[in-house]
Predict the 3D structure of the following.
Amino acid sequence: FMKIYISARFGKKQIVSEIYKKLHKLGHEIIGDWTQHKSVKPYDINKTVSREYAIQDLESVRKSDVFILISDEAGTGMYVELGAAISSNLEDGKPLIFVVGEHISRSMFYFHPSVKRVSNVEEVFNAIS
């Protein structure tokens, strides 16, 4: 089994939850389930919780064996998580990094040598099984 972290825009948490269910059935562990987080926007009013979530999520990225980013036309936090995943991969050789979906050409960092760009999550399931 592998420890898996999925990064996406907060608005896609239902899609991420569905992927988590499939990964659980395959015997994998979800590390850092941010879909359980409450919305903390505006961040400056929710400083303490925002800080806790930031620490937890980046720690989960660094501890993961597989990092999956669900690509989108926008987003903010997911790009910080991607940077942490790339940095961790360069230092420790993990996590494996996948950018998934329709927008896999949106960022130059999707073309980093440690990132695999794929069309759908089933390709990730095949690659890690």
Q: What stands out?
A: DSSP finds four helices and five strands in the chain. The two ends are 9 Å apart (CA to CA).
